[in-house]
Sequence to fold (86 residues):
Amino acid sequence: MVSAIGMSIGAGFRAIGVITTGLILVVQYGLGLVERRVFGRCIYHDCQIAFDDDGVARAARLKRRCGPWGRSLKPSASGRRAITSF
Fold:
């Protein structure tokens, strides 16, 4: 939609571009209301993984499997465990 609006404005049809932009905003607002009514509000959960740290290998495997979702590993107060959050 964005490229179609940009092309219409670039071609000199500014009024059509502005009208289409307004129409898209109204439709997206309406769909947001319908989505909240049908599916409810989004609920997010936080997950922590604590494990005994045996050195570099286990932490490297966890980082590789969790990918971009995990935060950095932090050592626990005892120093033997590492904790990551999602």
